[in-house]
Amino acid sequence: MSEQEAVAPTAHRLGAFLERRREQIAQRWADAPLFRTVFTVSRDETVEACRAVVDALSDVASAGRLEDVEAPGFGAVREQLGRMSGSRARTGLSPARIADEVAALRAPATDLLRAEFSDPSAPRAVEDLLALTVLMGTLRLVVMRTALSASEELIARQRQQLLEVATPVISLWEGVVAVPLIGTLDSARSQVVMEALLEAIVSRRARHAILDITAVPTVDSLVAQHLMKTVAAARLMGAECIVSGIRPAIAQTIVQLGIDLGSVLTRASLSDALAHALAQQGVEVSPGPSLP
């Protein structure tokens, strides 16, 4: 007899047990932290969510796929517990903590299964309890994967939000916008800069756009390429783009790398770039009074 044939009767019995004790398990799980802290509207809502998970586990067990995280029955589990673990992850709980909360669901189900046997140490009882342990372990793995995915998505969203916050587009004058760049400029942030600048050019009808790199620590060939692409994109939108804040050290680096910025209009400082933009619009800029 193959291993699959040997385990099938046990898995089938486990599936029948979960179906038979569905309501009792759901009622006990409704008081577990994993469910209780997410469904706060009513206990009935919590119990209904627990029933859905028990039904899914029963389907997985009846199919004899106790250790298969890709078993079709786990689809419902991912949908139900995935939403819950995602909610828990957003409150700051780690995937490991969420997995521990899932592991705590095993005890109530084990107690009910053990009560099915007059002798819990009998071979069949031991087999069924072991099968339940395996199934709950697989459930824990499924939820851990789902929680990790939710955490990664949350981190990605937060990173995107930080990039957007760190890349403000400022209106300096009518028809003049500027993006003061601070910190390292990588591919992801460069894309955000380009999108934000182009949107500002359209929404504010800007004729001049200034990219100020005074606070960018270093400029390599990749950063230079990103700047040139942004300048070219701004031109296509009908705006003249000026790069300001090129310090002597950065200028030397650009020369040493052999980067050709000849087609890019540059100015030493943001004020110089603004003065150029205003002059192009016919606005006369007078120098301020000299300090004593």
Report on this structure.
Helix 1 runs antiparallel to helix 4 (43-62). Helix content is 62%, strand content 9%. It has helices at residues 3-20, 22-29, 33-36, 43-62, 74-90, 95-103, 106-114, 123-165, 187-203, 221-236, 248-257, 270-280; strands at residues 170-173, 176-182, 208-215, 240-244, 265-267. With 292 residues, the chain is α/β, with parallel strands linked by helices. Residues 1-7 have low confidence and may be disordered. Strands 1-2-3-4-5 form a 5-stranded mixed sheet, with helices on both faces. The chain starts with a helix and ends in a 12-residue tail after the last helix. The protein has 12 helices and 5 strands.
Quickly describe the structure.
With 292 residues, the protein is α/β, with parallel strands linked by helices.
